[in-house]
């Protein structure tokens, strides 16, 4: 198994510099009642961290291959990121999304110029459809998490955290398929092995924890969560290997805790986060967990549909 290196992550940072932002890390300790800082990836183009990995991969494709176009399968945020990368490089993009995708993410992908195709409700459904279209049209697949170039791009987030907050002890990172935590943990552990890296999953979609507990990648029969971006039924093989090597601990949070975190971020920290992006804050604020402070929680996305926002904010 080949693991991404710190040098490759540094090279990815140079590659994506003109497209991905260096996002702010803000201290919310006063309102949280504990030492807590938030890394706001919700402020990236497309509203999520995904642009880091997507652009890092698309930009490395040979020009003749790239010009035929790219395709991906996504619950929304990765699809938007691939669309942004394709537009920046002047090539066509197709995004296969679930029939249950939030409207804000569908419209986002379309607004960046992607062709959107709908298929099923799980990662496996849309992956199979994307593979069919890729073969028919000779498009290049840009997977959402299980590829070293994707992991290297996501790892640039870890480099930024190391530079922005030298005194941290714990970093909380959300897990869907595992691309983000693979890169962030690889960057942090190879730069500062003393820092604890914790992965956070919804209790109804804990595919990575299931795999780690079993000692091998397995497919969950079903998943359910309000965090649509964290509902992979199966983590990536490469991501699984990175988590086993670099991640210290995995925890789960309930949907009610995630909804409360969305509300807390809006009301107390004045930050808009989608449920997938708020899962780490749910863990950080939980009295059932013990963390070594100071803590950094990654807010991975902010694509919150207005109708869902009203629902979460109205429930006390």
Describe this structure as you would to a colleague.
With 316 residues, the chain is of the alpha/beta class. It has two domains: 6-49 and 151-314, Rossmann fold, CATH 3.40.50; 51-141, Rossmann fold (3-Layer(aba) Sandwich), CATH 3.40.50.1100. 46% of the residues lie in helices and 14% in strands. The protein has helices at 6-16, 29-32, 51-58, 63-66, 77-89, 103-111, 123-137, 148-164, 179-191, 207-214, 237-246, 255-269, 275-284, 306-314; strands spanning 25-27, 36-40, 70-73, 93-97, 115-118, 140-141, 170-174, 196-202, 249-253, 295-299. It is globular.
The assigned CATH architecture of the largest domain is 3-Layer(aba) Sandwich
Rg of Cα set: 18 Å
Give the structural class: alpha/beta
CATH class of the largest domain: Alpha Beta
Strand line-up in the sheet with most strands = 1-2-10-7-8-9
Report the biggest beta sheet as strand number plus sense, adding barrel if it closes: 6 strands, mixed
Beta-strand content bin: 5-15%
């Amino acid at each position: 198994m080949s693991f991404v290196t710190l040098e490759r992550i540094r090279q990815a940072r140079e590659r994506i510099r003109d497209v991905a932002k260096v996002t702010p890390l803000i201290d919310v300790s006063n309102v949280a009642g504990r030492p807590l800082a938030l890394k706001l990836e919700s402020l990236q183009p497309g509203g999520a961290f995904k642009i880091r990995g997507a652009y890092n991969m698309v930009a490395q494709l040979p020009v003749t291959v790239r010009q035929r176009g790219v395709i991906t399968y996504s619950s929304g945020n990765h699809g938007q990121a691939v669309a942004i990368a394709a537009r920046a490089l002047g090539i066509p993009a197709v995004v296969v999304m679930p029939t249950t995708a939030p409207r804000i993410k569908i419209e986002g992908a379309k607004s960046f110029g992607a062709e959107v195709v709908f298929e099923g409700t799980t990662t496996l459904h849309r992956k199979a459809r994307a593979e069919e279209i890729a073969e028919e049209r000779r498009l290049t697949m840009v997977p959402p998490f299980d590829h070293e170039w994707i992991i290297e791009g996501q790892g640039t987030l870890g480099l930024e955290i190391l530079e922005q907050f030298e005194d941290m002890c714990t970093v909380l990172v959300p897990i869907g398929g595992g691309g983000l935590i693979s890169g962030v943990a690889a960057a942090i552990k190879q730069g500062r092995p003393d820092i604890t890296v914790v992965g956070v999953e919804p209790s109804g979609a804990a595919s990575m924890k299931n795999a780690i507990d079993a000692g091998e990648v397995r497919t969950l029969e079903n998943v359910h969560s309000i965090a649509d971006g964290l509902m992979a039924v199966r983590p990536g093989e490469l991501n699984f290997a990175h988590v086993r090597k670099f991640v210290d601990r995995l925890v789960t949070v309930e949907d009610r805790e995630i909804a409360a975190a969305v509300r807390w971020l809006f009301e107390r920290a004045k930050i808009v986060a989608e449920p997938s992006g708020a899962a780490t804050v749910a863990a950080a604020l939980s009295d059932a967990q013990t963390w070594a402070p100071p803590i950094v929680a990654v807010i991975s996305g902010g694509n919150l549909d207005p109708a869902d926002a009203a629902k979460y904010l109205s429930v006390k």
